[in-house]
Design brief:
GO terms for molecular function: 2 iron, 2 sulfur cluster binding; metal ion binding. The protein has 77 residues and is mainly alpha-helical. It contains 3 helices and 2 strands.
């Protein structure tokens, strides 16, 4: 699905920018060498960035909790 018609940015391109460290709509556009034009896509890109941050935080929390489980798979009491 296209997110930004002005610059032909689709979900895949936005997600690639987010995976490369972009955290805001402006950073997503800079990643692709462009700037916001009409602005209609900004709320969507902002929501995608927020979802990406939440997913990353959840993944970090899961990884941290798995680090505390003993190797034999039974939690210590």
């Amino acid at each position: 699905m296209y997110v930004c018609i002005c610059h032909a940015l689709n979900e895949k391109k936005v997600k690639a920018a987010l995976n490369d460290g972009a955290t805001t709509p402006a950073a997503v556009f800079r990643h692709h060498g462009c700037q916001v034009q009409c602005g209609k896509c900004v709320p969507t890109v902002r929501a995608m960035a927020a979802d990406h941050r939440a997913t990353c935080a959840q993944n970090r929390a899961q990884a941290a909790s798995q680090d505390h489980v003993p190797a034999y798979g039974v939690a210590a009491e």
